[in-house]
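Morning. Coffee machine broken again, so started the prediction first thing and wrote up yesterday's gels while waiting. Chain of 181 residues, entered below exactly as on the submission form.
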Amino acid sequence: MKLKAQLMTEAEMERALIRMAHQICERNAGCENVVFLGIRRRGVPLARQLAQNVKSIENADIPVGTLDITLYRDDLSELDVTPVISDTEVDFSVEGKVVILVDDVIYTGRTARAALDAVSALGRASRIQLAVLVDRGHRELPIRPDFVGKNVPTSRSEIVSVMVDEFDGQTCVNLHIDESR
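Came back before lunch.
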């Protein structure tokens, strides 16, 4: 993969997440009944950051859980004969809550669809909303995020990489060209 451009710096990511936190609070008339579920991997640190931002805006502690969607993917058999399953870590009930799924990038919508199934297995939420840092287009399913940090029109040969310090040692969003396509 060849780096084409940096789409967001760390500061730009922080500003986008602050704006998204404000939008979440406004759309839900506060955050009293809201929980965040970060889609493993990079959705988790983004969910934690959104929760911190909401805390500074509303002085509300928002529960944050980790959602592993591996078993709910429609391409599971194509991934590996023995896929790696990580734990879903949700130590609170989603019953009657506004569940906000948090992911780094939305592309085809298939990850979001799998996440909806995973949330349904946890219980009946009153509403489920989707927050993504980057929407790159090319949806294959009728799924649209409720909160978006940045819209980035891409070609199918491009790859959007969200990098977070926790996993990558740096925080930014890059656009790469997949020269194999």
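DSSP finds five helices and eight strands in the chain. Going to sketch it on the whiteboard this afternoon.
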